[in-house]
Amino acid sequence: MPVLKRIWHNYVLRRILRAIFVIWVVATAVFFMVRLLPGNPVQVYINQQIAQYGVSYQDAAASAASYFSFDPQTPILVQYLNYMLGLLHGDMGMSIATRGVSVTHLIAEYLPWTLFSVGIGILIAIVVGLFLGMVMAYRRGGAIDHGVTAIGSFLHAIPNYLMAIIIVVIGGALLGLFDVGSMRGTVTPGIDPSYGLAWVQDIFYHASLPILTYVLTTVGTWALIMKSSTTQILGEDYVTVARARGLNDMWIRTNYVGRNAILPMVAQIATTAGFVVGGAIFVEQTFKYDGIGVTLYSALQTRDYTVLQGILLVLTATVVFANLIADLLYSVLDPRIRTDETGA
């Protein structure tokens, strides 16, 4: 078999090459799309100087000329080639609006907080949702099934930014369950980041409302999907045979029903995680949680092209690599996928 044909039929290699191709397409699309936004960083800066300080256009333009190293008159193809060349060397460039700060530094400073809040929220939602889904499937037609289905459908229909607003208005303003003002940011000023118990409690305190939002807006989805998947598995012949053999009911639930019911959800779990990270911009802006979403919003306002490109590229890579991991994990759980695609 020729080497190229052998490589083409390699399941893992094909998935990796496809992921790289998707990232390149998205990086290219983002590069040109951010430049289609009205205004550029220099124009936005000049308008801000005139609006805030009442200076003349000439003075604002002179200030912009001394402040920015970015030249909007540079041919866009040259900018694109420089951007791609930098990416190949792992360099996403310097922030246009914040002098002397690299895009990599900004992402490394704020992205971990987003991953922390989103990761904890999704983990809780998946565990609770899968458990409720199995209970609903085993109690089909009962009060638990009807109640959880209604609540899950209601929560599934609410977008995360609207849920964040509801939590602030009802929980914070009307009922006074928590002080939204003191929960802003990621860490209370003065707390030493020593990874001690006080610091861990503090970061969970500040992340609690974003985590609550992610849990409430996704737990219903997992419960409904798990209920559907479990109900289908319960009707399979091998489950009936296992019961006829007199196997322990808990053994059947975990090794026959639970494992096979979760299998189709692996890809969806990975994909959802990536999209929730991308949707964190609205949640973090509502709670003033200093994650990557707030940074992205600020970059959008100042037309900071390099920061926009860097953050959107990282978010895209998160989704793509999550799908890649799901594909590889799925092929491990069900090896028939490899043989079906390669025709082996």
Roughly what is the average pLDDT, rounded to an integer? 82
* Strand proportion: under 5%
Topology order in helix (H) and strand (E) letters? HHHHHHHHHHHHHHHH
Structure annotation, total helices: 16
Structural class: mainly alpha
Distance between the termini: 13 Å
Report the major sheet. none
Task: Specify the overall morphology.
Answer: globular
Helix content: over 70%
Report the strand count: 0
Low-confidence stretches at least 5 residues in length (pLDDT < 50)?
none
User: What's the alpha carbon Rg, rounded to whole Å?
Assistant: 25 Å
Subunit arrangement of the protein: single chain
Relevant terms:
344 residues; mainly alpha; 76% helix; globular
SSE diagram, text form:
Elements: H1 3-8, H2 11-34, H3 41-53, H4 57-67, H5 76-88, H6 103-138, H7 143-156, H8 160-174, H9 197-234, H10 237-244, H11 249-262, H12 266-278, H13 280-287, H14 292-302, H15 305-333, H16 336-342
Your description of this structure?
- The chain has helices spanning 3-8, 11-34, 41-53, 57-67, 76-88, 103-138, 143-156, 160-174, 197-234, 237-244, 249-262, 266-278, 280-287, 292-302, 305-333, 336-342.
- It is mainly alpha-helical.
